[in-house]
Amino acid sequence: MTISFRKMEPKDAAAVELVERACFAIPWSRESFWEEAAKKDAYYLLAVDDEGDKVIGYVGVWLIFDEGHITNVALIPDYQGQGIASAMIKNIIAIIREKGINSMTLEVRPSNKPALKLYEKFGFKSVGRRPHYYEDNDEDAEIMWLIFKGK
């Protein structure tokens, strides 16, 4: 299996929607991804299985002044546990730093231990919680930040 990474374009919205539906109880719509791909202040990185030319995952970031806000990280379950999510995070951090971003933030479910471990691996630190953040089960969100040191 060969995985490559590339920027999402509006034409990728349908494929990204399939990943979204495989990963989340309340998925974003195809239209949402089409709009996100067209924004200048957003960057979505796709993971593509080159053997089938299939979008298998993505990470999205909103660029807000000098901060990056990770909107979602999703990887089709069959591809999890192979280091692909880690590669996506590593790549998006490099891309965002090249754009002059000084810090990144995200919200994650406290019950999502694999995701927490992944973000901590890259230096994200918990700074608090957003109560009742997730609509599907009223779970809080752990707020995490990564502050870049130097350029």
Architecture blueprint of SSEs:
Blueprint: E1 3-7, H1 13-23, H2 30-38, E2 42-49, E3 54-64, E4 67-75, H3 84-98, E5 103-108, H4 113-121, E6 125-130, E7 141-147
Parallel strand pairs: 4-5
Antiparallel strand pairs: 1-2, 2-3, 3-4, 5-7, 6-7
Folded structure, characterized:
With 151 residues, the protein is α+β, with helices and mostly antiparallel strands. Helices cover 29% and strands 34% of the residues. The chain has four helices and seven strands. It has helices at 13-23, 30-38, 84-98, 113-121; strands at 3-7, 42-49, 54-64, 67-75, 103-108, 125-130, 141-147. Strands 1-2-3-4-5-7-6 form a seven-stranded mixed β-sheet, with helices on both faces. α3 (84-98) links the parallel β4 and β5 (103-108). α1 (13-23) crosses α2 (30-38). The longest helix is centred in the middle third of the chain and has 15 residues, at 84-98. The N and C termini lie far apart (34 Å). The model has no long low-confidence stretch (mean pLDDT 95).
